[in-house]
Design goal:
The protein is α/β, with parallel strands linked by helices. Helix 2 links the parallel strand 5 and strand 6.
């Protein structure tokens, strides 16, 4: 697909400086882009490449003052990073819109309901009583169990598994290998020391506009629902346990684990490799640094936490600073003990 600078400017509400007919067919990083590609500059650290880039079109912030002439056609926007993300999204949408029909071999149950302009890739499975909305794209190797709902404009990438009774909203993207609705980790201890499995009969509900990274797993509820609210963004390799609820527009980075029945508020930011215990609440707007361990409920909104066990970020930083100085402090204590012993010996001998 090829677009002119004028067409791109219309998509992102930008103003053109240069040739509006300049055409591009692909994307490139500003330091590596070639003629026929479009790039962007949002971070001033990379401004030097603006004047040497081979890109035909470059998106920049509207308030950027040029230090020298630029060969490329420029498109000025309020926020270059957001505009470029919008353009990439549109490009991806155009690519997926071309996909339609049911490839063979695949299996679609006779009782399943399939919407308009749906794509189902080879070796996919769609179970009984499942409802697939309009413009849904199901890539090869996806397995969708019985009585599942997948709403309009959702993308399920290769190898996604959605267990029975789960509900997936509109404009959801689930990346390769993710598992939605597998059993929660529920086992009852018995008198003889063994464990009896507790059946997990609930489901997972994923609301509109959610994105779920590759190989992330979201367990079904023991009873009721595990709920991922609208706008949540989950990275790769995240484990979300049974009956967890994650609030709107929360973002969670890779390798985080959230234990059962924990409730996370809206617009929370969680760094990578965070561990969160079960049956606690995390307040709206909380920010958690990478590798933190959250072991208690956080009630105050819009606070930052770090460390394991997690403390408020400022306290955690002070603790880390003290810890770094412990070897020197130990040395000073030993010197003081030595001086005190010498002083006591001197007094005793006199």
């Amino acid at each position: 697909m090829q677009f002119t600078a004028a067409q791109i400017a219309m998509m992102i509400n930008g103003k053109i400086e240069g040739d509006p007919t300049g055409a591009v067919a692909s994307f490139g990083k500003i330091e590596e882009a070639q003629p026929g590609q479009i790039s962007f500059l949002a971070n001033p650290k990379y401004e030097e490449y603006l004047y040497t880039s081979g890109a035909s079109v470059i998106i920049i912030n509207e308030n950027l003052v040029l230090k020298q002439a630029v060969k490329a056609t420029l498109i000025r926007v309020a926020d270059a990073y957001t505009a470029f993300a919008t353009l990439l999204t549109r490009y991806q949408e155009l690519q997926t819109q071309q996909l339609s029909g049911i490839q063979q071999p695949s299996y679609v149950a006779s009782t399943a309901t399939i919407g308009e302009n749906v794509f189902i890739g080879a070796f996919a499975y769609v179970g009984e009583q499942t409802r697939i909305g309009n413009n849904v794209k199901i890539f090869p190797g996806v397995v969708i169990g019985n009585n599942v709902t997948v709403a309009d404009n959702t993308l399920l990438h290769a190898g996604v598994k959605v267990y029975q009774d789960c509900v997936i909203g509109k404009q959801v993207t689930i990346h390769a290998g993710a598992v939605i609705g597998s059993d929660g980790f529920g086992f009852a201890p018995k008198a003889d020391g063994s464990y009896q499995k507790v059946p997990q009969i609930g489901n997972v509900v994923i609301e509109d506009g959610v994105e779920i990274g590759a190989n992330t797993t979201i367990d079904r509820a023991t009873m009721g629902s595990t709920v991922i609210r609208a706008g949540v963004k989950l990275d790769n390799l995240i484990q979300i346990a049974h009956n967890v609820e994650i609030g709107c527009d929360t973002v969670i980075a890779a390798q985080t684990g959230i234990s059962g029945s924990t409730k996370i508020g809206k617009q929370v930011m969680v760094g990578g490799q965070v561990g969160i215990v079960g049956h606690i609440h995390i307040a709206d707007g909380t920010r958690v640094a990478a590798k933190s361990g959250i072991s208690k409920t956080i009630r105050e909104t819009h606070k930052s936490f770090a460390g394991s066990p997690a403390q408020e970020a400022t306290v955690s930083l002070r603790t880390q600073a003290i810890a770094r100085n412990l070897p020197e402090l130990e040395k000073r204590v030993q010197e003081l003990e030595k001086q005190l012993a010498e002083l006591l010996n001197s007094r005793l001998s006199s």
